[in-house]
């Protein structure tokens, strides 16, 4: 069964009431940010390194470099999501679904602190993406 985001009066004002509670989420996001930055730096160093190879044999690390480049792109995307969540904390809008403007359940934020949408809205967005990809 697909859950549909209930239509309620949107919450548009800053969530100043929950700002002290957001310190935990902020620390988790900052720790995740540090980890991502370290991993990005490590992968970028690997990609910058020169590999000696024989032209007739090809690049022995080509597959590994392709995987590293793909991983780097994913980590950079995740880093941007973390940065966006930290910005929402500073603005006082953290934990508010960007689509329906309702609070994102604490359980979802605990699992995915960078969540931008409630589960119902996320499902709608994913369905729309799948339909547009055909």
TrEMBL record:
Instruction: Outline the residue ranges of the record's dksA C4-type zinc fingers.
Output: 97-121
InterPro entries, sorted: DnaK_N (IPR037187), Znf_DskA_TraR (IPR000962), Znf_DskA_TraR_CS (IPR020458)
Q: Which of UniProt's keywords are assigned here? A: Coiled coil, Metal-binding, Zinc, Zinc-finger
* Ranges where the Zinc finger DksA/TraR C4-type domain occurs: 92-127
Domain of life the protein comes from: Bacteria
Q: Which residues form a coiled coil?
A: 65-92
Which terms in the Gene Ontology molecular function aspect does this entry carry?
zinc ion binding
**PANTHER family according to UniProt:** GENERAL STRESS PROTEIN 16O, RNA POLYMERASE-BINDING TRANSCRIPTION FACTOR DKSA-RELATED
The protein's name: Zinc finger DksA/TraR C4-type domain-containing protein
Q: Which organism is it from?
A: Ardenticatena maritima
Traced from the root, the source organism's taxonomic lineage reads: Bacteria, Bacillati, Chloroflexota, Ardenticatenia, Ardenticatenales
